[in-house]
Design brief:
single chain, 276 residues, alpha/beta, seven-stranded parallel beta sheet, 8 helices, 7 strands, binds nicotinamide-adenine-dinucleotide
């Protein structure tokens, strides 16, 4: 087990039960980290679906971290709002004295439509959350880590869509490819401060977000959801879709001392379906 004793980790978009963010919080806490669980909370009426982490869900995730024996606070954070990002980092410092790890997990993957039918506003929304939000949170967290002078870790939850095209998901795919470019540039600038910046690229994980995609693409293929998932499994060398724990384990490794010399990488966690 990679140990993170004494470290403080802020995870964005972590307020959904069963989401990747929750699994990441629990995994980092199991390694000894104290956790700042953040998500939209009740603060923002959200786009076309109610698919957001509420204040109650955020508190519940923080409660599960505490029940597992670590310390946690829940803080509302819309990643598109730089002032909220600054306030969340300050809350981490006020509560735990420092910030060592940022996991940029918040993302929108449920706005799916053919490119020629996608309104520009949808495109902008996805890019704003999935890419600009990562830039803003990285910027303010890195400022704090640089002030502390003891290095740090930034891990960006990208996707298989950071490496390959996906139909009906142009904005999502572009945002995740962009995330890899941001990861590499940030790694170059923050390396001299002892801060590593890496991305993790999961394939399909059946969380809330994954479930929406399953329903959409099963319908598009004239399949039931179980048939769609069976076809998907056949294409994956490890013959199963991803589990939240697969991604969480990779994040814990990248946050550990063992990964101190790994930066600017976009690591596939895909059961072999993505290999470049
Ligand atoms: N589930 C998958 O198959 C899969 C695969 C590859 C990558 N990912 C990525 O993993 C991450 C988590 O995905 P998930 O499956 O757990 O999805 P999810 O929908 O369960 O979680 C995403 C979270 O992001 C939050 N969010 C949305 N907009 C936000 C904003 N402006 N500010 C703060 N939080 C915001 C939502 O409230 C939600 O809690 C996403 O970045 C996603 O793109 C997921």
């Amino acid at each position: 087990m990679h140990r993170l004793d004494g470290k403080v980790a802020l995870v964005t978009g972590a307020g959904r039960s069963g989401g990747l963010g929750e699994a990441i919080c629990l995994r980092l806490a199991a390694a000894g980290a104290r956790i700042v669980v953040t998500d939209l909370g009740a603060g923002r009426a959200m786009m076309e679906t109610g698919h957001i982490g509420t204040t109650g869900e955020m508190e519940a995730v923080a409660g599960r971290v505490r029940a597992a024996g670590s310390e946690a606070i829940a803080v509302p954070l819309d990643v598109c709002d730089e002032a909220q990002a600054e306030a969340a980092v300050q809350r981490a410092v006020d509560a735990f004295g420092r910030l060592d790890i940022l996991v940029n997990n918040a993302g929108i993957g449920y706005l799916i439509s053919p490119l020629v039918e996608t309104p520009a506003e949808r495109w902008r929304t996805v890019l704003e959350v999935n890419l600009t939000g990562v830039f803003l949170c990285t910027k303010v967290a890195a400022q704090q880590m640089i002030r502390q002078g003891q290095g740090g870790r930034v891990v960006n939850i990208a996707s298989q869509a950071a490496k390959s095209g996906h139909r009906h998901m142009a904005a999502y795919t572009a945002s995740k490819h962009g995330m890899v470019g941001l990861t590499r540039s940030a790694a170059m600038e923050l390396g001299p401060h002892g801060i590593t910046v890496n991305a993790v690229c999961p394939n399909h994980v059946t969380t809330g977000l994954g479930a929406v995609q399953n329903e959409y693409f099963a319908k598009l293929n004239n399949q039931t959801v179980p048939e769609y998932l069976a076809t998907m499994r056949e294409r994956i060398p490890m013959r199963r879709v991803g589990l939240p724990a697969d991604t969480a384990g990779a994040v814990a490794f990248l946050c550990s001392d063992e990964a101190a010399y790994i930066t600017g990488e976009a690591m596939n966690v895909s059961g072999g379906v993505e290999m470049h």
